[in-house]
Design goal:
CATH topology: Glycerol uptake facilitator protein
Strand content: under 5%
Number of strands: 0
Number of helices: 9
CATH superfamily: Glycerol uptake facilitator protein
Radius of gyration: 17 Å
Largest sheet: none
CATH class: Mainly Alpha
Structural class: mainly alpha
Order of helices and strands: HHHHHHHHH
Length: about 250
């Protein structure tokens, strides 16, 4: 989730970075790791009678995001999340023509990750499916809020030259971990349509999936727009382009 050549492409500049296929490949590896490690941790903990508590599972999700950002951020931007990709496009930080390829890659990798977990933990993948334990309206709002918080952090550390870019992985991973720790028992703390689609497709548990498809996208767009508003994108000058301002 770092600034890369796609922003130049979005503004009509010459693209010199990795090809789209390599970017999508990096997105698939990162998303696979997220689902395999995160959902695997949930299932393993349930099978081993609480080997990991809510804090431990939250840390797993945060850590896998952090390490994959450092591993692939310079290639694809490390979105690993359709909601993040859409939010970047909405705020003109990512070219819309690449959005379908990114989302298809993310979803395919999430399904593959869920499938591998299902092979390792036969008949237990449903435990990793996101489902609300609160009212539907409350669950929707929770997913909107925590995804907005996550995207606000992503936009801050990934696109603003005034932020410490080297800390992006830690900051974003920390935001994911916090969201999972605080709201995991309430909604599953998806914040990511792909993360929910993968287990749902393989386990067949689709109830309330719509919440996890819509709410994260709404939240991510709100978070990205909120940061753009307080940063003041409209005040950027042409000279700021080199710093990732415009």
């Amino acid at each position: 989730m770092v600034e890369h050549s796609d922003e130049k492409l979005a503004h009509g500049w010459v693209e010199t970075g990795p090809s789209l296929s390599r970017k999508v490949g990096a997105e698939m590896i990162g998303t696979f790791a997220l689902v395999f490690c995160g959902c695997g941790a949930i299932v393993m903990s349930a099978m081993r009678r609480g080997a990991l508590d809510t804090t431990g599972i939250g840390l797993v999700f945060g850590l896998v995001i952090m390490v994959m950002i450092y591993a692939t951020g310079h290639i694809s931007g490390a979105h690993f999340n359709p909601a993040v990709t859409i939010a970047f496009a909405v705020t003109k930080r990512f070219p819309w023509r690449q959005v379908p390829a990114y989302i298809l890659g993310q979803i395919a990798a999430a399904i593959l990750g869920a499938y591998v977990v299902s092979v390792l933990f036969v008949d237990h993948l449903q435990l990793a499916a996101t489902r609300p334990s609160v009212d539907i309206s409350d669950a929707f709002m929770i997913e909107v809020v925590i995804t907005a918080f996550l995207m606000f952090v992503i936009k801050a550390v990934a696109t603003d030259s005034r932020a410490v870019g080297q800390m992006a992985g830690l900051a974003i991973g920390g935001a994911v971990a916090l969201g999972a720790m605080v709201t995991g028992p309430l909604t599953g703390a998806s914040m990511n349509p792909a993360r929910s689609i993968g287990p749902a497709m393989i386990s067949g548990f689709h109830e309330h999936l719509w919440i996890y498809l819509i709410a994260p996208v709404v939240g991510a767009c709100l978070g990205a727009i909120a940061y753009s508003a307080i940063r003041g994108d409209e005040a950027c000058t042409p000279d700021d382009n080199a710093g990732g301002c415009c």
